[in-house]
Amino acid sequence: MVTSPNKVAVIEDDRPTSEQLAGWIRAARPELQVDQWFDRDAAEAALAREHYEMVVLDIELGRERHAGVALINAINKLKAGTPVLVVSAMPAAVYRGIMKALDAWDYLQKTSFDEAEFIDTFLDILRAARARQAPAAADPAPEALQLDPLWQRSPMWRGQRINLPLTAQRILATLYQRAPQVVSYEELYDVVKSGRTRDNVRKHVSTLREALKEVDPSFDAIENVPMRGFRWAGPR
């Protein structure tokens, strides 16, 4: 297989949608080469031939209702670790869990997202994939808090998994990475992405604290800074 850095694939049978997604990617990251495929056979051949940094695909291709599932399975068989972002009209409430079980990295439902959300999700996955492939300088000592940068696995606190929704995971990662600085409400709005109000941020932080207290009743590492935001005050 030929290694192709800075190369991504968009697999979508609807040409206007394919052009829109490819155009958004090129505008956000002009250095990326975007290959567009419109049917399962052509896409499957390309996946066997090329090593893409990332694949964006639809579940339905032409008359094949679950062609995207077959393509994800083909990617997994190659064991290249290629991240997959699924963009489909199928209801997210039903299919997000199915796609996660197949090792897709994220799922966006058509008509329910805009360019900004697509690009944010796309770039988050791309950065996480590149970070995973970067060689580690040394094996660090285990930390009290362990985060998965891909958000595919639950974070761990003192060796125990924490059951958290994705938004709460992002807030936790932001607070932890910015410690010991205070992270303002306004900065956390970018993490929450929707429902950008202080009340909503506080609800997510409350969910986060409750989940951590379930595995550690003495947990108190998230500090509320009145009128400003929140701060990670725990071990690093």
Automatic annotation (TrEMBL):
Keywords tagged on the record: DNA-binding, Phosphoprotein, Transcription, Transcription regulation, Two-component regulatory system
The Response regulatory domain, residue ranges: 7-125
Residue numbers of 4-aspartylphosphate PTMs: 58
InterPro entries tied to this protein: CheY-like_superfamily, OmpR/PhoB-type_DNA-bd, Sig_transdc_resp-reg_C-effctor, Sig_transdc_resp-reg_receiver, WalR-like, WH-like_DNA-bd_sf
Pfam family, one: Trans_reg_C
Name by which UniProt lists this protein: Response regulator
Entry keyword Phosphoprotein: yes
PROSITE patterns attached to this UniProt entry: RESPONSE_REGULATORY
CDD domains the UniProt entry points to: trans_reg_C (cd00383)
Signal sequence extent: none
